[in-house]
Amino acid sequence: MKITELKINNFMLFDKLDIKWSPNINIISGENSTGKTTLLKLMYSSLKPLSKKNFSTLTQEQIEDSIVRKMLGVFRPDEDKLGRLVSRVQGSNRTEFTLGLEKKGNMSIGFGNRQERHADIAININDYKKFEPIYLPPKEMISATEHFQSLYEDYHIDFEEMYYDLTKLLDRPLKKGANTAEQNKVLASFEKIIDGNIIQRDKKFYLKMKGAGEFEMGLVSEGYRKLATIIYLIASGSLDKNALFFWDEPETNMNPKMMQYLAEAILELAKMGVQVFITTHDYFVQQSFNLISSYPKLNAENLDIQFISLYRDSDKRIQYTSAASVSDLEHNSIMEEFDALYMREQDILYDN
């Protein structure tokens, strides 16, 4: 289930936006408050309910209810009022957004700013196949999986529902049978970065490092915990060729020297068939993917890597630009700040 396009009208900070997505890897950048995370959360919360095993047996009312509940859990508007996600203006307003799906499928959702728990939803999916949307948030969860689910289910915890969804995926046991050749190749890419593999026992995770033994996940750096999460999701069969992978700011608590190897490992995921969406503020993340995109010997399969930059125009409305390489990307906030830092240094050196 690949996403081909996202059209938005009057949703949160977006007035109007129409983004075409790469079927392989999408790298999204932009200044703070330009909606990078909002895009990921919108696509994730819309599609996650459709991945249920019993989706084909659900009534229209049940589908609408599950999507509304997921959006409320992911965005957490005050008083659980869905209408608070509509762009704020005086008087009545309404949001409409549409996800273009592969094989000319689509999904449209609309609701007004006075709606509380209802949305108008239309779904057209051709040749439905089981898929898994996976959201990796900035904060790791693999070290908290043991107790987080029960706490989230029994108490009001100030975490968006993606965290809860992730712990449920981590709670899945390893699948029976041998891994496919594709899975082994992807696993090898990630395991090479951390120089070890992941073990789960009684809902607790351990990093088994070559020549050093096992380490409780709480004793491992947070960057390694994120990589351990991906490794286990692949090994358990959740992150497979039918997955949509949303990763919000992978650079958080990650050493910059790991970004080259991380980009190479993500490329292997995309080769397997996973559609990847990554948000970033980081120069090293953006440039690591740019090298792969720019040099054919690093991307022999010619996978499509698209760079998307969100920015505010002169009227303060959010717009976007996209390109296949960073050098062709307009309004690149990462490179703009890089250049500004260089100019500040020149001003200091030459006392300008």
From TrEMBL:
Residues 25-284 form the ATPase AAA-type core domain. InterPro entries: ATPase_AAA_core, Bact_Antivir_Def_Nuclease, P-loop_NTPase. GO terms for molecular function: ATP binding; ATP hydrolysis activity. Keywords: ATP-binding, Nucleotide-binding. It comes from the Bacteria. This is ATP-binding protein.
